Fold these 4 entries.
Entry 1:
Amino acid sequence: MIKDLNNICNQKVFEKLFNIHAKDLRRFLFFKTQDMDTAEDILQDAFIKLWDNCNNVNPEKAKSFLFTVAKNMFFNYKKHEKVVMNHQKRTLKSSNYETPEYLLVEKEFLVKIEEAIAALPDKQKEVFLLSRMEKKKYKEIAEILGISVKAVEKRMHLALLEMKEKIGNV
Amino acid sequence: MRENLTKEEESFLAKWLDGTISDATLKELVSEQDFIDYKKIKNGLELLNELNRPVAPSFNTLYNSIHKKRNFKNTQASFKWGLSIAASILVVLGCYFAFNFEEITHETSYAEQKTISLPDGSEVVLNAKSAINFTEKDWRNNRTILLKGEAFFKVKKGSTFSVQTPNGLVTVLGTQFNIKDTDTFFEVVCYEGKVSVTNNKKEHVLSPGNAIRKIDGKDSEKHDKENSLPSWLNGESSFVSVPLKYVILELEKQYNIQIDAHRIDDSIIFTGSFSNKDLKLALVSVFKTMDIQYIKEKNGVLSLE
């Protein structure tokens, strides 16, 4: 086993790099592809490429290596998608663009949501994060905080109202 | 069900988020535009969750595909990589725990300051009620610290030095800088060298004298500081255009006191400083100038009017 801590071929170094960069890279790729599965696929391929080149890449340069490789992979994926689309003679995409189901999710919008959550009054924020991020049921939240389920629901309601107000016209 | 859900019901949004009431029901309760907005926020929240989910399963997949490719650079390493899938997952878990066990934590309590030397000779000065956490192993190549609260850093030249806080990531090569990060208050000041601050996926580069801060979820703002060192290192807390509630929080941290501010508007802006060594003087310098009365209650709480 390679012991050199400055070499990506060292399994531990490789894993550490994954833990540091995977989330950011996945996020970056999601905003490009607008699709979680594709983002995950490219993420995997980019790290495989890093492993293949582990002797040639300095750990400090790993981040820019990963993002550059991922960007190129994304362009190739787009090119391929275009070819497929042309081949199908644009029979696709008849979905209604007016419905909220059709959403191009922009980074800025998610940032706005994050900021709106951060700006909530503490009591609402606490309930909101437990419910939306920790996926706790209202009943569980009520038990954790020692308040009634009604109170939890009220805070949730107010929190969403406030967030919409803050985010404005989405 | 639908008949019961009148507009007076003040929790229908909670029920909708929870899935207890349907999209169709919500559409009847709010305007069409509102419905679209709520739906977008709900989708956005789900997406945020997706984007924040742990990367460990993803690493296992990667591990297995590398294993299948048999693309090994080193015969000894290939022995490790060549183990069965079940064993490889164990190895991954093992590494994970090994890393975790070597974490070092330093914490300060109320009114306490602490200077910590890092393995490479860099220095961290922790202000009151703050904590850092780092892994000593492989420090020279991976200088990463987790910080909660406020600290001043003197970094020796070397590999990238990163400080991760709940509100952002700060990276440098060798320099002096100060970070303050409490729930909704995030400020980084650069005193020497260059500092890169990433928050909300935006990167800002600070030069000496530059500072960046973000309060209450508002946009980040850049400003300049003239001092050559953070004032708290000399026993003083100073503020420039900061909402009063953060000044009160700092008073509580520095003196381990409780302050009741519910009778005053704590969002008013304060510029000035207070001593961290003399409570009486500190209270005068903050509240007299703002024309706020303070009374010590029987239970020790300081209440403001």
Entry 2:
Amino acid sequence: MTLQSLNLLPALPEIFLLCAVSAILLIDLFIAERNRSWTYLLSLLALSACAGITLGSASDAVSYAFNGMFVDDPLSDLLKVCVYVGVAAVLVYSHVYGRSRHLFRGEFFSLALFSTLGMMVMISANHLLALYLGLELMSLCLYSMVALQRDSARSTEAAMKYFVLGALASGMLLYGMSMLYGATGTLSIPEMAQRIAAGEVRGTILVFGLVFVVAGLGFKLGAVPFHMWVPDVYHGAPTAVTLLIGSAPKLAATGFTFRILAEALGSPALVAEWQDMLVILSVLSMAVGNITAIVQTNIKRMLAYSTIAHMGFFLLGFLSGTSEGFGAAVFYAVVYVLMTLAAFGMILLLSREGFEAENLDDFKGLNQRSRWYAFLMLLVMFSLTGIPVLLGFWAKLAVLQAAFAAGYTSVVVAAVLFSLIGAYYYLRVVRLMYFDEAVDTAAIVNTGDQRTLISVNALALLVLGMTPGWLLSVCKHAVKASL
Amino acid sequence: MPLLSLVIWVPIVAGIAVMATGSDRNASAARWIALLGALLGFLVTVPLYAQFDPAAHGFQFQEKLPWIPAFDINYHLGIDGISLLLILLNAFTTVLVVLAGWKVIESRVSQYLAAFLVLGGLMNGVFCALDAALFYVFFEATLIPMFIVIGVWGGPNRVYAAMKFFLYTLMGSLLTLVALIYLYNVSGNFSLPAWYELKIALAPQILIFLAFMIAFAVKVPMWPVHTWLPDAHVEAPTGGSVVLAAIMLKLGGYGFIRLSLPIVPDASHALAGLVITLSLIAVVYIGLVALVQNDMKKLIAYSSISHMGFVTLGIFLFNELGMEGAVLQMVSHGFISGAMFLCVGVLYDRMHSRQIADYGGVVNTMPVFAAFFMLFAMANSGLPGTSGFVGEFLVTLGAVEVNFWYAFLAALTLIFGAAYTLWMYKRVVFGPVANHHVAALKDISAREGFILALLGIAVLGMGIYPQPMSVVLDTSVADLLAHAARTKLP
């Protein structure tokens, strides 16, 4: 054991967050109910400190820790920073919502932060076991968060579904990993890639393992045909938790997909194997997601199907199998998270004590109730549709271009046609807000931090959409430097 | 001075300022700021015309800044004579629309005016863009304000019309996006001037042409993808109809000129027959359809489609008369259709009906209005001395050079156009006073008279002396045709 392999600095953000969460967990026990805001502030503080550490140590260098089980590369830095932002935004958005629903408790914050830790480990894993550990840490926290309102039958049911299907997915993933181990004799990602490249592997088992791993990935991403849990969980979970499930974990899943498909199984011969699978997952996701979303009347369900469709687009970038394509997919994931945060954030904002703004009709006439919120939601919806000059358009352009360059012309044409179908249900939200008369005339109550955040979040879609160059370059550069 | 950037951004910034005035309590502030913004937007286009060098080849007033280096997308602007005229028309129309909505729009005034100003800026962007991605961004972004305008201030069936408008045009432009991505992949950039030099084999050229054509044909609109237009026009508020007919439809014609012809000239020649056939169907068949309409706005909408048929016909004749005629027809149609929709708007504001049958004898109560309406009706039927004649005449002449029957069918519009316009005019304006509603009509106000007078001057001026317009076109049209005549096959 050399001194080099004892270096724990690459894992400093994780170590810090672990200490911080443990501290918050303890401190929270001694805080009276009315001072619960301290937990909230401490959680935000912990996340910003993590961001400081990650940004402070960000460089193009790739460093390893824990005997090569853990890696700190530019991509992990990028994704982690986005995860911090995402989780912090979730905490701010759910502030008022949580208070009125007994969610504003120590458990909520510590579980959210532990799941953040899980995501960070997933993103930085350089070994299949570490990857799996991170995934389970994240998932277990999310399962219990869905069930946090234990009196609600709907939430409990959703948590049960999420747990059972999640466990099934984990099982598949583990089974696949064990086959990969059987074929290559290692669980370390770089070694696996080396052995595959050297040809010292058993092809059939490898491909079988690959199929199971991709199925597991499909579950976690919520791609068709492994999407069944998405609408029920999104619908059943308290909206604050839906927001968490819908946002940051997608970034972790991006890291996860990248580590397995691009790094471990990225040799040209294998790429062709998983490309075909991803094509099917991607096209089916876009088809089912976009078409099914049309008939939804509940906006959370609608956004769940929209997530499925967006994951199809995300996979479209991935299946090109080039570093350009991976960069486009990472860009897509980051943009998607930004849009989801704003969309669910708006639902949280419009909800109030004893009232969930979760039906599409609750958005009727929003323009009369608040011109500013209606305008922000309009930006979000057009960004999700992919109308320029909003950020969502550039994300679509990037993945379409990558898939086109890889020769998937017909898939690209299918993708644009499905996004045309998708335009309908996003437009419907705009229609309800602007064209219809308000039914609900209650005042919209929320705090200054929420108002600022939703404004910044939605306007970011417009401003970044006008200057998408740097974010795109950052994503592409991070992928290039990490491969 | 970055004139073209000003042309794009002055209206948009003014639009944001108008939106900031907020609720209807500040409606009059919103109106004045909007008028100021629109006038300013028009003023910055004046130096463009003054400093434009009609003899120079290529694009003028160019600006180029890197925008998205990862895709080599640049903020690249530049205009030739064709874009210049459309920009002037757009800036002019924006002023009129702000004035036209002055009294009529009473709810959510600031949003209404802001939508039009932003829309005006975005459409200027389309006419200025020399980067395909920039072009696409502006082209698509125009959908958002128009969608809102139709949907919020439109008629009873506005939701259906707005959705149809949006989805129809989005369908076309998404396929164009695929074509743009293809061109990017073979060339490595989005620069239109660079794409003009690109060598492409015939098969991909045809596919690219078809992808472009879907977007632009929907926008023009050409038969058979025109069905969204009558719905959109009928439901849109007057201002929306004016901008839609006067400028938005031109985005389609402009797209053919700026993208299809120079980038894929061989495919354009190969498929010219298809476009010409569709154009002639639009001219003849849609002309007949217009004849049987009971709704004034619908009638003018169909007449728009029929007149826009001349534009696509002229473009694909590939001769100077046809091309110049097409561009002049676009400008003239901008004036005339705008004026026609405003005239219907004047009647609708008073009677809240667009049905021809509800009118009759309007001349007795609104003589000044009837005179203006007469002028525009004549222009719409292509009477010599009005702007309507210039474009149609040139295109017909150009068509004779290519094929007598093209010219023959195109010239039928002179009959049909006169028939449906004048017949409508007769039923609405002449005859005895039809009912007590008509008897109670008040003639146009000074504001309305001013707007119609401006348009009347434009229509007559262009009809009698089109020289100032054709002079800026000559070189650009010749260059475009030279480009289109050069094969791009490898």
Entry 3:
Amino acid sequence: MSLTDLMSMAKPNLGSREKILAKLGGEELVNCFQCVKCTSGCTALKLLELKPHEIIRLVNLGFVDELACSDTIWTCATCLKCIERCPQKASPYHVIMALRNLAIEKEANAPEGYLKAVSRILEIGIAEAVQEVVTRKMEIFNRGSLKLPEIAYPKEGFRTAFMKILEEK
Amino acid sequence: MRAAVFWGCRILTSQYAYEMSVRETFPRFNVELVDLSEVNCCGDPVKSVNNLAASYLAARVVAVATKTGLEDLLLPCNRCHFVISEAKNALGKDRKASKRISNALREEGLEYNPNIRIWHVIDFLHDFVGLDNVKRGVQKPFASLKLATHVGCQIIRYSDLRRVDDAENPRKLDELVGVLGADTVDYAEKLDCCGANLMYSHPDSALSLAGTKLNALQNLAVDGLVVSCPDCGLMFDYKQKDAGTIVGAKLSLPVVYYTQLLGLALGIQKEKLGLHLNQSPVDQLLTKISD
């Protein structure tokens, strides 16, 4: 849902800030003075209207649950310019990642692409499936015909350990 | 010199040209690359889902690399380089997470050792092999070629992690192109992101970002774009046609991996460098080079 819809008549819950602070493992949020450097350089601002400074402010005001349910947190391109340029090391990138983790915990809507990647890692150990490529001259190649070594996928022990960590609270 | 290499997912499953050209060029500088066996995803898509699980994946890559006994680990993918650098940093600070992950790794008989040195293709060639040595290997310098570089986002940011090059004015890739005899241009969109990560959630916007940058470059009349990240390669080369459709421009810009260009300068055959696999019109560039 859009953030504007979620925010209409929403009540702040200052306690909800703690959920994000715990994930950040520090007090990185409190020093934001809304200089908007993050937003002015944000890759996703123009096309997807991501405004990182707004996210930091909303977290500080206690609107964490609204953010976790919003589509906005999934528009970050992870270019890392916001964290690089923040004069207070407030790191919108890390806040957005913490909000995404929270959204998954709350079972809010997350883009399918991420969940597919995780289930593929559980299945074969890597996040992508091997593809054949078609050249400019319409010839088809794969790893074998390109004489590239076969992929040695991780074994069962990895999957068990990964699953265990994923399921932990 | 021997170094372990972790290719990540994207290179192993579709960006074969990058893999082939790294495998061909590195031995020319007496670097033997040792593939890791039974290794997993670096954790990048998992960061959005569960940060601890992502750190576990990154730590497992480091642990598998440690098992080779080698002291250097090459990560040709920008994203893997970032995720693993950040996990190393986080596990150094967070003792609880570090302990939990060490226990999980021990179940498989693996041990996490943060001391392995990590490299990307760019800093390995620029700082370890050295510009002089790269230059010395060049058999066919490219005269009168005008190229643009795109280093990508995640190997240069954020500076608090040790990164490959300067966050706002990266020069190493330009210098590496320069020693091959070609000129590089500075352009306003140089630090603009390729958009690859948005392919998970907003593919049209991702393609729009790639297409906008390619269109700007095309208007500068450069002979080609040089990248060194499989995600950027995917967006600018593999998806160039789709990106052009989204931004309403006829895009026709050759896009190559740096190691492909390097291989050509070293006199390696173009098929061995995977130059038949690029989807962008690299023949335009190859004709200019062989002239």
Entry 4:
Amino acid sequence: MLHDVFNLTLLQNTIRTATPLILAALGGLLTMHAGILNIGMEGMILIGAFFGVLGSYYFGSALAGVLLAMLSGLLIGLIFGVFTIELKSDEFIIGIAINIFAGGLTVFLLRSIFGVKGAFSSPKIVPLPDVHFPIIDKLGFLDVIFNNHSVFIYISWILVICVYIFLYKTPYGYWMRGAGEHPECLETVGVSPKRMKYISSLLCGIFCGIAGAHLSLGYLTLFTENMSAGRGFIALAAIIFGASNPIKTFGAALLFGFFDALGIRLQGVGIASQFTQMIPYLATIFVLFIVAKGKLNRKGI
Amino acid sequence: MSERIIELKNVSKQFPSVLANDNISLHINKGEIYAIVGENGAGKSTLMKTMYGLHEPTSGEVYIKGEKIKSFSPSNSIKRGIGMVHQHFMLVPSFTIAENIVLGSEPRSKRIFSDKKKAVDIVKSLSRTYGLEVDPNAKIQDVSVGIQQRVEILKTLYKGADILILDEPTAVLTPQETEELFKVIKRLVNELDKTVIIITHKLNEVLTISDRVAVMRQGKLVDVVNTREVNEKILAELMVGREVLLEDIDKPEIKGEEVVRVKDLVVKDNRGFDALKGVSFHINKGEILGVAGIEGNGQSELTEALAGMRKIEVGHVFIKGIDATGFNPKKIRELGVAHIPEDRLVTGLSKVSSITDNILMGSQFKEEFCKNKLHLKRDKIRDYAKKLIKKFDVRTPSEDVKVGSLSGGNMQKVVIAREFSFNTEILLISQPTRGVDIGAIEFIHDQIIKKRNEGCAILLISAELDEIFRLSDRIITLYEGKVTGEFKNGEITKNEIGYYMTGNRKEQV
């Protein structure tokens, strides 16, 4: 039974399940660096997932779906920014509000636009294409693990590098980190910390929108109610575990993806799904516990 | 006559509840060192922020290099050649020195990337030109405050400043670092043709460094004088508006037994590093033991450990012969210890509660204020609060006023009123006059001495060397968590003690 679970397919699944986490976490860590704790990623992903399906269905193009998802994410990011940065509301409250709003909005739109309850799937939804690399065809396990994935899996890896370069190699990255660490300092050198916070919030919305579109058009080809299923929060855990560093966060997201995939594989060998579905969340709590314990030990209390 | 590089005409700044600057007109000449002095809340910082463009004045006009300022913003001021070194350094702790200096106007490669190598070269050449040595690749969080201040000055010079505004630049420096800073300022002005505006409340420094002094009181400009023509006493009177008697205090010799003994204390800081590395000392009855040291050398952790607010890793604390190691704050208080914490707003007071309630804290179960440990006797408590408000000269319209609306000095008096009224034999006093004006400082010092003369054993921790020297009977210096020296007051000068505060024994210098 063990080799039914722990095999190459598990690793292949890990890469698939980690991708929405990676995309959302990349957005979230930008806001984290800019000094905003964004717990609204969950809702941003859900809205992205819905508008991805909507765009793909109506325009008959996956690209249109992705663009619409990005646009919807951008809008939510803007709303988040206006409330937390401009009106100085509590980040937590606004994050929760966005999550609740996203749940309600998608259910409402699902009924009023598609006239269905619970889930919407249709052959008219164009999924995101898979990418095939002929070069690694013959490379055995590498081919199994890395080849023939949905396009955003590969794009997410490139984005990790891009975000890393942005944060640590460009002046804008310095400004964004400065905006979080010492906003007054940034202001006195003539760069608006508010502007950097806005940019981070908008980018976070876009990244979460893509994560959602990948979920509903790449990972699956349908929309179901609450399909983000806690991924926004797990992404947040990955950011915390990865200390907001894009490379480490990428690693943390892969780890959480692994547990998600493990849950799915265990279900395949007949372990009760009520239990296997708990695995990614238990793993998240466990990892956060370790992070928190490390901090407490250092405080000496 | 020399060129007027900055000129203010009838500048006023109204904040929602207070008129911070009231119709101020002054001018600063090119190439002079201009000092602005005043008590806390006199409006110095507001005035400076207006010059730097962080505020827009409610009314009045500001001219820089003869040009009237229309839009107030720091980036415009930087373009006009004004640089500001803030009291609380504007540096990002996790960035390197070079990264901090170029922040906001980074040298670039291929237009979008920041060119780290060039930044390091720029900093090196700035260091050479101005004689301000720094390691461009060191992180801000790893260097001393003296170096951080150098970085701040380099930052303004990198941006091309020829007018430097320094806000309380010596507050965190040792006497040696202060001397070094003054040399730099003099060189900037005399050799490199810069103009320096310095804001401070330390009058002796004003007299050493400045050419002219502007004195502010309660938002108004009281006078502008030539430094040559005044002395400390005249300035103090202008600042406070009445005669100030910070004279030597009468301290009769008291021979008392040992009350507190601290042995080989090791305590960790919030990051988990050792903040105290084996500290030992004792305090006798009727004695003030002053702890001198630059902030962040273990002083905060020391008071917290003694007050029971921080875990003691190794070592022992004996209070009146009882081993009180590991006692919680309540038990320590029961042994007869009162504590004036360093940050009154974090651990000293509840801002949103009334003066009465703040004074009650710690006495809420006393039989005279509380029936059956359940029912507070409000009338008695109110009378008690009224009595203390009067005794400790808290300036407030009523005892029901929320503490948060009082001035810093009056807040501190509330803490002192409460803690001094427990009638304990041991006092832990940390930064008793931080952010408190001269008038209140006088009063607080008198109260501390009174307690000493009554026979209290007092531990006094202060960042102000003057205060340590004025009040203490004995002084220990703390550097990187270790006691580096112990002296009877009078045995050592402020200048000499500076060496011990930086870990250099006198003979090594």
